[in-house]
Amino acid sequence: MRKKKDDDxxxxxxxxxxxxxxxxxxxxxxxxxIIILIAIFLLINGSYxxxxxxxxxxVTMFGDVVRTDTAGLYFKIPFIQKVHKVDVTTHGTGIxxxxxxxxxxxxxxxxxxxxxxxxxxxxxxxxxxxxxxxxVAYLFNSDNPEEILQDIALASIRSxxxxxxVDEAMTTGKSVIQSVVKEEMVKELSKHDIGLQVINITVQDxxxxxxxIISAFKAVETAKQGADTAKNNALKYQNQExxxxxxxxxxxxxxxxxxxxxxxxxxxxxxxRLNQIYxxxxxxxxITKKRMFYETMEELLPGLKIIITDGTTDTIYPLExxxxxxxxxxxxxxxxxxxxxxxxxxxxxxxxx
Length: 353
Hints:
The chain is an alpha+beta fold. It folds into four domains: about 20-85, no CATH class; about 90-210, Tetrahydropterin Synthase, Chain A (2-Layer Sandwich); about 210-280; about 285-350, no CATH class. Helix content is about 60%, strand content about 20%. The protein has helices at about 1-45, 110, 135-140, 145-160, 165-170, 175-190, 210-285, 285-300, 320-350; strands at about 50, 55-60, 65-70, 70-75, 80-85, 90-95, 95-100, 105, 115, 120-130, 195-205. Strands 6, 9, 10 and 11 form a four-stranded antiparallel β-sheet that branches. Strands 3-2-5 form a three-stranded antiparallel β-sheet. The chain has a two-stranded antiparallel sheet with strand order 1-4. A hairpin with a 5-residue loop joins strand 9 (about 115) and strand 10 (about 120-130). Helix 4 (about 145-160) crosses helix 6, helix 7 crosses helix 8 and helix 8 (about 285-300) runs antiparallel to helix 9. It is rod-shaped, with a radius of gyration of 60 Å.
């Protein structure tokens, strides 16, 4: 009876051992599966990484830079290599003002007020655009590259603005100031090597620091604009009138040339006529003298008024009607005298011969 009980006890022990053995095998398999899943998860998530188009990835191993990756899918050694992603797109920041949460610009009086070459204060604001040009230098050459960039920008702006007058900085000198500030910043950034690059810097606004001065400068600017308008109107009037004046001058010059030619021709004609008269005079001097006298009188007498007076008469009556009679008588007398003189000249010439 006792032997039977011992056999039953052995059977129960064997069954428990068998169950424990089976449970151990299941637990081992589950543990292996869990370990494999964890390894796969760590392998996938720790070995591969993706870089988008806006970023660059700097891979380091034990503190040393291994490589720099651009956009794409890459592999790294888990737990040994680390990936540092850097945004390489263009960013912008204000210098001389800050942007509030509602988007309103707030003047930064500490950084925005500059002194000009004529010792005036000027509130001038800039907008700076920059990006990361060297991810490695950006990550490891300085603790805060953006702050260094801000300091370089302020130093360059103050240095450049101090070379210009307040009028130039507010009006015509803005574009030059922007260009020079950018050149200065490029030089300083190349010295410090913080991995940042200046894309552009522009003057947002420039005005005096107080309202009274602003009003005075606006009045001066209005006066300058009025002067420019008057100058432009004067130039417009000049451009309109100058061609007319030039045309009139050309016309006067041409008329003068024409009159000159006419007078010369007339003078030459008179000289030729006098030469002809002189030739006649050499041949018939007496006749020529008388003819010239009579021709002169013919020109003068028709314009004269004949007045008869005894010197004591109060009223004098011009006898204009005598002019025609006098002219006719004079002509007849001239003709008879010329014929008589010609005959006398002919007789004298014959006697001389």
